[in-house]
Amino acid sequence: MASKTTVGKAIPPPKEEEHGYEFGGRIGATLISIGLPIGCYAFAFLCNDVSGCPAPSLLLPRKLFTPPLLSTQSGWQHALSTLKRETGWPGFAGLINTEAVLGTLAWYGLSLLLYVLLPAHEVEGVKLRTGGRLKYRFNAFLSATTILGICAAGTWALGPDFQVWTFINRNYLQLLTCNILVSYFLATYSYLHSFSVKPGNTANRELAAGGHSGNIIYDWFIGRELNPRVTIPYLNTEVDIKSFMELRPGMIGWIMLNLAFMAKQYKSYGYITDSMLMVTIGQSIYVLDALYMESAILTTIDITTDGFGFMLAFGDLAWLPFIYSLQARYLSVHPVILGPTYVLMILGVQLFGYYIFRASNNEKNRFRTNPDDPALAHLEYIQTRTGSKLLTSGWWGQARHINYLGDWIMSWAYCLPTLLAGYKITPSILTPGTRLITTDGMAGAAVPITYFYLLYFAILLIHRQGRDEEKCRRKYGKDWDEYCKKVPYKIVPGVY
Ligand code: NDP
To answer: Which atom of ligand 1 is nearest to the CA of 286?
Structure first.
């Protein structure tokens, strides 16, 4: 039995404080909802297989804004037309097409079908404020392995010409648009649907504690209803929209994008580089691990605290698959050969991060689901007045979010395989009709693109740590302060 420290006498749990605005309130929500989709397009265009990564003119801003001598264009017009040419800008109408719309509908339809048809286990979620618990149907790992099995068979038969890979590579941009539109749609649907939540309903429906400020934009963004659900007509199956979107179309879509980029590299060069394998295998393990541990999602703040709004819909369906796969997309055009020394070093980073990430998350999950587990008997904890226990030794005695540190270390292993990134595409003089892809003058110029994930993820985790901290302080009151005294570091032991 784990040893315990009881703080204070058994008195009623502290009353939760009022929620304030997060993410800069309605102004922040508006800027994020418009800015991040534009950011996704910026990455898609500025790192391309038309002129280079980044588009070479970006490195010569003075020249970019200087039109040729006899030109009637202003500096801005010249810059715009140059960038349109260098990025392969297809015009606004070219950002979407019927093929991508049908493909996206088929992808979400397939995810839904596998969710309904494949064997699943049913798990109860954490206790809601209403006192009830929702039931969740889990089979994401089986769904993913089924899809990957079908794709493996297709690739075995057709190689890189397997239609799924060629479809993704042909419609990458349009698929991005479709997933952004799905995010806007789902956020709007969930927001409107939330107005049918009535106090005392028997379906355990409730509003997210921080999601009903009354400000339309903010509530639409942050998520008004905690667990919006829909029942699929004819199939008579209820789908929890948030957990479904969190783990299926976007996460599995991330692996699919990576594999399509791998096929593209093979088709272009006739080989697959060790760097491409490192990125794709490393990220696939990360995703499959999350799907295998599907029920662990139930105690994450996404499920227990945040409503389902644009923030989660866009993050799950557009940002995660399309931004997290940037490295594989880069390598599909510009192959990097690492060699055994770099491979072993990067593998070491990945395994080190994974060990911290998995061991710490497992320790908390096991402690929360079975505190009497003899393997956890050595751990110390605080018994809070809410009834929950907070670990103060083991991994969770090192830092209050040691799991984030492991996750962040792993993100290095996804970026490092691109080394000093940057390439330029020029027509070959020797073989007309072919292109040369070189690092000529570009080495390092794409580092802000292929290492963006590292920086972004650090910001996300630090911000998330702050949000979780606020949530816990609201929930645990003085017990949380006591915990912070015992475990002073937030993410990195001895540093932060
Ligand atoms: P955590 O898994 O870190 O869980 C935080 C919750 O754990 C707290 O709200 C609290 O919940 C409980 N808790 C906090 N301290 C203790 C303690 N000492 N002992 C026991 N329980 C404690 O939260 P996340 O949902 O943020 O992260 C889950 C995983 O997902 C992480 O590994 C993270 O790195 C990863 N992640 C990945 C992202 C990506 O884009 N790749 C994005 C976000 C997360 P309670 O109210 O139950 O006490």
So the answer is: 41
